[in-house]
Transcriptional regulator GntR family protein (Patulibacter medicamentivorans), 468 residues
Amino acid sequence: MPPELKIALADRARGGTRGRVYSALRDALVAGRLEPGRRLSENELAEWLGVSRTPVREALVRLRDDRLVEIVPQLGTFVSKISIAAVADAQFVREALECAAIRLAATRVTEAELLALQALIAQQDEARAAGDLDRFYLLDDGFHSALCESSGHAIAWTLVQRADGHLNRVRRLSLPVPEYMAEMIDEHRSVVAALAERDPDSAEAVLRHHLRMVLSGLQPIQAEHPEYFEQQPA
Amino acid sequence: MPPELKIALADRARGGTRGRVYSALRDALVAGRLEPGRRLSENELAEWLGVSRTPVREALVRLRDDRLVEIVPQLGTFVSKISIAAVADAQFVREALECAAIRLAATRVTEAELLALQALIAQQDEARAAGDLDRFYLLDDGFHSALCESSGHAIAWTLVQRADGHLNRVRRLSLPVPEYMAEMIDEHRSVVAALAERDPDSAEAVLRHHLRMVLSGLQPIQAEHPEYFEQQPA
DNA sequence: AACGGTGGACTAGTATGCAAGCGTGCCGCC
DNA sequence: GGCGGCACGCTTGCATACTAGTCCACCGTT
């Protein structure tokens, strides 16, 4: 575990120690390198990352706001198990914000932005062909980020990211299915097409359908990794 | 300044020192007791609140995520000035989330929840008659919170609150106008009426109009307190 | 053998100490 | 008188020390 974390840490020189620690831990959590249910320890993490407890603590507090970890005083810090309710919440938030954003974007997107979106899709296709999951994941994020930016409210993407911890873990677990990637790229194309026609209703409808695709992967994952999921109250 | 802070602190025994400090500071910021542009100091705040720098630091980091303060390394921490762009962002987020929530709520709200909403409105009317601004403000928050809860995604209200720092400061500054309160109560009644008829479109339209009312108070406030606002780049 | 109590080793929460950087005011120089 | 430079005091960032509380395993007793 330590080596991966150190790599992720080295990647991002920005934002001081605290920012690096937060990014490193968040990456590790979303990518599943720190599996749900696992117990963390501030001391352990601090040692792995080669920093003191202070920045680790501050990062963990932020991650708790993101619902990715649970901090139990005098007991320990735990990687949140994936909760169906939390996934539903995240999906709701994402739909609400991104759909509102794309309606705006449809009225104000520029040609340059449309070209940039198409370029991103092309890169996604390359990543799919190369089977590079991580790259595809990043490009997908970039696509949706660019979408929000075109609306003039980049804040939307910031919030989606922070609210989306549970959902992103599901995304990462479901990406390995190759045909999903092709389907997603097609839908991205449809979204951009609707944007190009400046049609808010159509753009919203297409995006909403696209966003709901993620959920289709949920049940198989739950069947495959039940230990990652919160037990439902009967 | 210290006395008000200590009072706010005493109010909330929940959540340990860190939670108390965060709540106290947030209240003071949103209520305008810590005016925009003011310079804060971790040492000063720690002394006022009777705790050490550590919980203050962690609270300030969260408040920076809320965009209520700006932390400049090696220089100081400042109360964010109200930024028109940030207000617009907050309004966008709030509309997107609350309107999505009320659409859901219209399909699943229970009779008991409708009664609770009506009870809140009645209390708002009392607060208005008594001229109790703080109480009215709290009841308004409670109303919108209950709305989100009825949608099954209480998380929406949590996010709205955290994203709404700038907007809430405007709300607090504009509340003193008495006729606004009466108008808001009327609109609350309309929202509940639309919910009672299980009409998502109408509920959303009414709520959206209601939420935009806040913005109508923006310009007079900017005229009255220009020093609270971020200078626009020409 | 089974149960109860006690001690140790862990946890997070908080407080404090040290390092590095920026702003400002003062003092000397031109 | 005006300007350049240095030094002091302030800031936050980070590391470390200490407190309080929980869990768990071991040991003594019944």
User: Anything to note?
Assistant: The beta strands of chain B are 39-40, 69-72, 76-79. Residues 41-43, 53, 57, 71-77 of chain B lie near DNA strand D (CB under 10 Å from a C1').
